[in-house]
Amino acid sequence: MSALTPIVRALFMVALLCVTGQVSAHVRILLSHSTPPYRALADSISAYIDGQTFSIIDVGSPGPDSDTPGSDTGMLNIAVGSRAMDYALKTMPNIPLLATLVPSNAYEDLLKTHEDVLKPGKVSAVFPDQPLERQVAFVHLLMPDKKRMGVLVGQHSFQYVKPLTRLASARGLSVTIGDAREDRIPDAIKDMLAGSDFVLALHDSSLLTPNHAKWLLYMAYQRRIPVIGYSKTYVRAGALAALYSSNDQIGRQVSSMLGKAGLRPRYHTADIKLPKPEYPNEFSIELNNNVADSFALWGIDPDLIADRLRHLNGKGIEP
Fold first, then answer.
1. What are the residue boundaries of the structural domains of the chain, listed by start?
2. Paired strand residues for 178
């Protein structure tokens, strides 16, 4: 079953309410793509609710059995991915929207794009990316002897240069920026690596292609510079480590947020007040031991680092 499926399980709380008649209005899950992981997600939901008042829509290719695109009725839309969020804001601006799997920078960009239709308390999100402060604390705890941090930024992440530099400076770290906004990825990586002891990879949809990640990991490894990623996939591809939130962890937070939103019997759209967007409350650490050995970075203890991050942030971490 797809790795995305745990998020759906956390949303079953709402689905079951719909099925049992405790919620009279309609809830949609909007999927950004028709790729197998998203289809598996939709199949899992359909199996639990049997196609009743909880519907699944692939916004890329709506079928004859799905809602009519642009139908501005229902109680709540849940967007899985940036494309689905954009679709919801374009076609159903009056329906409260909770976005998931939308990085914070992409979320802010979409709000600016659709600012003319936004209504207070009607759009929110649980972000998949970690707050900058937690990321900087993580790399500092991971490699306390390395002081020069390289960061590749694109169209969506350039806004983080100043706050990231400020947070890094507070921990005795300098920052070398690789500016990839003009689609000069290899040159930007080369410039960044020239002044870096390690690289912190940021969530940025303009930099998330497999080719970009491959170039970064390959060029960094050639220069004996470790890369810190933001997902287990990045670590499997050759990054030293990653601080990330699993689908299960994000799903639990989505479930909690739906409760805060006021999903109650016989509630309607006007009754739902979404809380402010949230970064992940829970997080996990993945370490590539082979990469650590190749860089002679021995003695890294992910559990100890997790405990220290939990103390710093007051947040839990899965055992």
1. 5-128+247-271, 132-244+283-313
2. 152
- pLDDT tens string, the chain, 319 residues long: the values are 444 455 555 554 444 444 333 333 477 888 888 776 555 544 543 443 433 366 778 887 655 444 445 566 667 888 888 899 999 999 999 899 989 888 898 999 999 999 888 888 899 998 989 999 999 999 999 999 999 999 999 988 999 999 999 999 999 999 999 999 887 888 999 999 999 999 999 988 777 677 788 889 999 999 999 999 998 889 999 999 999 988 777 777 777 777 677 655 444 555 678 899 999 999 999 999 999 999 999 999 999 999 999 987 544 343 3
Distance, CA of 316 to CA of 309 (rounded, Å): 9
Three-state secondary structure string covering 252-296: HHHHHHHHHCCCCCCCCHHHCCCCCCECCCCEEEEECHHHHHHCC
The class (CATH top level) of 132-244+283-313 is: alpha beta
Q: Do domains 5-128+247-271 and 132-244+283-313 have the same CATH topology?
A: yes
Count of other CB atoms within 10 angstroms of residue 97: 24
3-state secondary structure of 244: strand
Helix (H, G, I), strand (E, B) or coil at 178: strand
Tokens 């860089």 identify what position?
295
Judge: domain 5-128+247-271, CATH 3.40.50: yes
Residues 6+ apart with CB under 8 A from 18: 26, 27, 49, 52, 53, 54
228 forms beta bridges with 200, 241
Distance CA 27, CA 73 (A): 10
The one-letter amino acid code at 304 reads L
Q: Which two tokens stand for residue 197?
A: 């002891």
The position carrying tokens 């650490």 is 285
